[in-house]
Amino acid sequence: MTGIIEIDHLSKQYGSGTKALSDVSLTINEGEIIALLGPNGAGKTTLISIICGLVVPTGGTVRVGGHDIRTDWRAARRMIGLVPQEIALEPFEKVINSVRFTRGLYGEGPDDAYIEQVLRSLALWDKRDAATKELSGGMKRRVLIAKALAHRPKVLFLDEPTAGVDVALRREMWQVVEQLRRDGVTIILTTHYLEEAEEMADRVGVINHGQLLLVKPTAELMDEFGKKTLTIELD
Ligand code: ATP
């Protein structure tokens, strides 16, 4: 079956040092939510960064919607929205302008009806004229998601969407992902938490030391390993 993302024998070595990814192959299907689970330094961000065209792989190929990220990067990049780990927003910019700006970066013309739809679906419409510095941490994360969706990507990457946030905010983020699932967006997220993968994802890929150790439907993984065993293995 042809996936919306096809990763084939991907590897990455930073300089002559760390081998961050080793021979990773994975097909991600349209509409699915996949969680990449692994501890610090496992290679999750490197994998996402390569697919998003931010890091050059040492070997292997990645296709997004059939477009090779090396030879056809513009079309590949157009299909992807990235929500980075760090919150980096222009503090004095209004929410709606920040989202409009990102849309413009992709060469897309204005489409305020679509931007309204995105802001409403993320419960940000009432805050559209607020400066981003006035928002709570959860709202800022939702603005980042709105910006990532601004050019109507088919695939959304969420790099550790709940790192360093409290339980309430984590649950809020889970609800946002559920909403995006209903909108038909394919989602790849990274996490340290098995419970988060279980809550949100259709499949889970376990990464450690740059290797994709396994990929399984979430229910199957939970049946086989149970929370305790897997946590111990990853630690
Ligand atoms: P975390 O959960 O802490 O974000 P991660 O699973 O996303 O970790 P990566 O950030 O991909 O892991 O890092 C994988 C390995 O590559 C680590 O050993 C890291 O130190 C190394 N690494 C990452 N970026 C670079 C870089 N720009 N230069 C050199 N080494 C790097």
Automatic annotation (TrEMBL):
> Where does this protein come from, organism-wise?
Paracoccus caeni
Q: What is this protein called?
A: ABC transporter ATP-binding protein
Specify the ABC transporter domain's residue ranges: 5-234
State start and end of the fragment within the whole protein: 1 to 235 of 313
Q: State the taxonomy lineage.
A: Bacteria, Pseudomonadati, Pseudomonadota, Alphaproteobacteria, Rhodobacterales
Which GO molecular function annotations are given, in alphabetical order?
Answer: ATP binding; ATP hydrolysis activity
Q: Which domain of life is it from?
A: Bacteria
Keywords annotated in UniProt: ATP-binding, Nucleotide-binding, Transport
Question: So where does this one cross the membrane?
Answer: none
